[in-house]
């Protein structure tokens, strides 16, 4: 990778997921209608990593060739080497430093026809005039591609120099250099069986497309060249040319099946040379609609829920569970209040304990569950408390048998009364009352203003 990682501030990603930010800002269904319109245009792009050009890229080159010849029934896997290489490219090579003299500008001088490329010693004008259409020379010569499509990374031809930021700016200002750069791109498209048809980068099949597509399907080292071409287009101001080319290669490899061996490289490499996330999503959605078998398409958004979504789901589940438990507790309390207690004192104490437990449960429940049960719970802060409890029987005095029997029958009847306490402390007195207590508490009949149970 040359001088790409000389600094210490950049932390390299360690997984494919860290390298791929394509779906981070996905809005859900953007531009799907646009996909259908572009499908009729037949435009595509292919990726051929700068891996053919460096030692670390050599691992990627082998990986890219292997991916292209995967058995149809074997589920493909994402390449970490490819993901990391394209991540660095899309992020302008973090910690990249121009160590070479800024005044050298050998790539620009080559395109100005002032120096030949090394080691062959051929000028750019000769390449454009004599090599165009010479498919054997373009196929078997492996030193010219680094000069025609320079990058900010070292390639296998060590005579070729990396681009510098200063050189890129000067290159874009030179109309002569830009004109020859576009002609070089057209020459390579013709070699692949395509032609450039407008200034937006739209490409279509050339007249000899069948012969060239067959060659491209068999000569998979050209996939690496395509990746380099795509990268160089983005470096030198032609980012808009990339998406149409990638779309065409996806269409030919996945839909038309004219270049089936290119399918994996197009998805793993070519798509990820495009810097705009929305453009990458459009291309991947197009590919997923036609990919076979569909369950093997591994370039879509992650199916794992995001951390904040998981927390929200857990919180909602917890609130629902607490609401359900609170409702059960209230139902049990209402059922219990309708029964005749055997011991009034213990009954009142149990009821008060239920109130304390219910209040603690409401505090833990949160705002939503708490608001629903708050109005039905005993509030100790009020100056006048209203307490629902079983009727307290009057003390049985020494009377006749007939009167005692009558009182006994009335004691067995179940009724609900309201005990009005003048303050909070007075409720504690109820704990000491029992059917045998000689002191009769102050009892009033419901006035109709209380809450019905």
UniProtKB/TrEMBL annotation:
Chain residue ranges for the region called Disordered: 1-72, 295-384, 433-453
Opioid growth factor receptor (OGFr) conserved domain location: 102-304
Biased composition (Acidic residues): 15-42, 347-359
Family per similarity comment: Belongs to the opioid growth factor receptor family.
GO molecular function: opioid growth factor receptor activity
Name used for this protein in its record: Opioid growth factor receptor (OGFr) conserved domain-containing protein
GO cellular component: membrane
A Pfam family matched in the record: OGFr_N
UniProt feature, compositional bias: Basic and acidic residues: 327-339, 360-384
